[in-house]
């Protein structure tokens, strides 16, 4: 006989599974919301295609699946690209189908020429990348039962229905604005940069650090690329008047400058700093910059402003040390290479201080524009 009654055992297992399911759900909340949006869009597109008696209504369903993205701006972009590519491809496919009916013996040649022309256009205008596919389907698909021009019209209608349903689903079901993606990317970049600054502060103090700077800079570059994409999606949303612009245009440039400052700090610390008295003030400045970055990342999310006074106090202490070293001639007596590294470290930290303040200004501008 088991020591625990079966009912208690089942209740224990049920509680454990519930906690595990809740944890997984919390960790994948964005993905679950996206799945619900796609599912709702598919159902609505299928219902509308059936109601409108579209001859090939499944294209509306396909389109709804394709265009629903993680944010409203991305969905609008995908919908417009799908619509424009379908219009161009349907018109070209209708013309090709017309010639194919008249000269069926040249069907293969007509198909190849049409696809070549559309592929050339798509190479120039990537937004029309679905045009060659649409034209091929129009020419060799199931359109023999109707006039090519009628088939082209129905194809455009089907794609339009799917696109509109996709935009509506993204707008109404767990609304996903590009602002959320911008906040996430800025927070990610701030975290990566803070880890790098903390790593260099440890090096200045002679402490061990196992951070892979190469991996961190690669992650920073990837996050910056995603931020640029989110900014473009936010611009699309603002252009359609479905949301306000949530971040200033200068934000990515400010973050790139900040990244360059951190790279310069790393190069200056390729060898131990030549003046021991400079190490601790520089490390304290990097610690203050790390805290400021963490606080700045929360500015877009919750509106809490970073502590500029603490950063300024660390900067004043760092400058005072530099002035003392200059007055004593400590830098002038160094060998050229060591002096160059000291000047490089000082220059990079000064630039970082300026760019941190500029980053906070840009994020405050974005916060005010959404209020």
Tell me what the structure shows.
The model has no long low-confidence stretch (mean pLDDT 82). The chain folds into two domains: 29-172, no CATH class; 189-369, no CATH class. It is mainly alpha-helical and 371 residues long. Helix content is 79%, strand content 0%.
Give me a quick take on this structure.
By secondary structure, the protein is mainly α.
Fold blueprint:
Elements: H1 6-27, H2 29-51, H3 58-67, H4 72-102, H5 107-124, H6 131-140, H7 148-172, H8 178-204, H9 213-239, H10 251-268, H11 276-302, H12 308-328, H13 336-369
Helix pairs in contact: 2-3, 2-7, 3-7, 4-5, 4-6, 4-7, 4-9, 5-6, 8-9, 8-10, 8-11, 9-10, 10-13, 11-12, 11-13, 12-13
């Amino acid at each position: 006989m088991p020591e625990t009654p079966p009912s208690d055992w089942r209740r224990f297992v049920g509680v454990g599974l519930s906690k595990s399911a809740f944890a997984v759900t919390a960790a994948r909340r964005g993905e679950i919301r996206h799945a619900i949006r796609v599912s709702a869009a598919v159902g609505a597109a299928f219902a509308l295609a059936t109601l409108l008696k579209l001859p090939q209504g499944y294209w509306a369903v396909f389109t709804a699946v394709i265009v629903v993205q993680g944010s409203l701006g991305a969905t609008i972009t995908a919908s417009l690209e799908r619509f424009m590519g379908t219009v161009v491809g349907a018109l070209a496919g209708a013309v090709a189908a017309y010639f194919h009916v008249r000269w069926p013996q040249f069907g293969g040649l007509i198909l190849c020429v049409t696809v070549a022309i559309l592929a050339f256009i798509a190479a120039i205008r990537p937004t029309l990348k679905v045009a060659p596919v649409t034209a091929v389907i129009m020419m060799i698909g199931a359109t023999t039962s109707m006039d090519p021009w009628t088939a082209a019209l129905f194809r455009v209608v089907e794609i339009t229905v799917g696109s509109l349903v996709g935009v509506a689903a993204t707008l109404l079901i767990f609304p996903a604005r590009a602002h959320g993606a911008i906040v996430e990317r800025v927070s990610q970049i701030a975290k990566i940069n803070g880890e790098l600054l903390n790593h260099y502060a440890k090096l200045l103090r002679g402490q061990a650090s196992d951070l892979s700077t190469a991996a961190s800079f690669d992650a920073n570059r990837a996050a910056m690329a995603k931020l640029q994409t989110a900014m473009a999606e936010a611009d699309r949303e603002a252009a359609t008047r479905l949301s306000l612009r949530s971040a200033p245009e200068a934000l990515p440039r400010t973050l790139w400058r900040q990244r360059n400052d951190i790279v310069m700090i790393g190069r200056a610390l390729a060898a131990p700093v030549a003046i021991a008295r400079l190490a601790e003030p520089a490390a304290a400045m990097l610690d203050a910059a790390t805290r400021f970055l963490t606080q700045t990342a929360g500015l877009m999310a919750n509106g809490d402003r970073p502590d500029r006074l603490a950063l300024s106090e660390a900067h004043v202490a760092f400058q005072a040390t530099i002035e003392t070293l200059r007055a004593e001639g400590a830098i002038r007596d160094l060998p050229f290479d060591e002096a160059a590294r000291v000047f490089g470290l000082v220059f990079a930290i000064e630039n970082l201080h300026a760019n941190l303040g500029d980053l906070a200004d840009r994020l405050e501008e974005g916060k005010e524009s959404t209020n």
